[in-house]
Amino acid sequence: MKNKSVICPGSFDPVTLGHLDIITRASKMFDSVYVAVLINSSKKPCFSIEERMALMREAVEGLSNVEVVRFDGLLAQYCRRHKIDAIVKGLRAVSDFEYEFQMAIANKKLNPQLETIFLTADSDSMYLSSSMVREIGSYGGDIGNFVPACVHDRIVERLRQIHQ
Ligand code: ADP
Q1: Rounded Cα–Cα distance for residues 73 and 96 (Å)
Q2: Ligand 1 centre from 96 Cα, in Å?
Q3: Is 158 one of the catalytic residues?
Q4: What does the pLDDT read at residue 96?
Q5: If you ran DSSP here, which 8-state letter would residue 2 be given?
Q6: Which secondary structure element, helix H or strand E, spans residue 33, and what is its range?
Q7: Pair 56, 147: CB distance under 8 Å
Q8: Which of 43, 66, 109, 155, CA to CA, is 20 to 30 A from 148?
Q9: Within the chain, which residues score under 70 in pLDDT?
Q10: Do 19 and 155 contact (CB within 8 A), yes or no?
């Protein structure tokens, strides 16, 4: 599936090793990967859009065909405007499936050229979520196995502030 560009959307609040696994695998399969950081996620984010973008940029620094962009609005329209061929999503469990399946069909209706591709989560990171990282980190727990090493300290420091 070369010569194709794909988008990995998410709130990334903050980036986890689960996100990085999906993005890394997508970067090996496709020519260019856009990581779209949602500006107005329905959940009120803990990290600001600037923080989430900066952490993600650092996490993907070694991946030359990955670009981090901010995103708001309808993904199907964004993909049409930027000539993006497919959305790549990570599937952790059956619980992810129903919502993702619904979104994939809706996006296809809005933009029939747009495919949604699901990558199964890695067995080492399938339990991971940003909310779990926030919860553990804000109580001073060790998040060393959950987030990319290069951004670990910054995430820890920021989450500690929440309980100060
Ligand atoms: P979260 O659910 O952690 O708040 P996001 O909304 O930022 O995550 O997720 C963005 C994308 O990353 C979604 O497609 C989601 O399925 C995927 N994803 C999140 N965590 C993991 C993980 N641990 N393994 C694989 N994919 C994941």
Answers
A1: 22
A2: 9
A3: no
A4: 85
A5: -
A6: strand 32-38
A7: no
A8: 43
A9: 1-2, 41-42
A10: no
Residue to mutate (ligand 1; options 22, 52, 107, 134; most atoms within 8 A of CB):
22
- For residue 130, what pLDDT is reported? 96
Provide the pLDDT for residue 41.
59
pLDDT at 2: 59
| Terminal Cα distance for the chain, rounded | 48
Domains of the chain with bracketed CATH:
5-123 (3.40.50.620)
Tokens 């989450």 correspond to: 159
Sheet holding 86-91, edge to edge: 66-71, 32-38, 5-10, 86-91, 115-120
- pLDDT score, position 42: 67
| Residue of 34, 49, 129 best suited for mutating to test ligand 1, as the one with most atoms within 8 Å of CB | 129
Active site residue 130: yes
Q: Which atom of ligand 1 is closest in space to residue 133's alpha carbon?
A: 3
Count of Cβ atoms closer than 10 Å to residue 70 Cβ: 12
Compute the distance between CA of residue 151 and CA of residue 148 in angstroms, rounded to an integer. 6
- In sequence order, which residues have a C-beta less than 8 Å from that of residue 109 and are 6 or more positions away? none
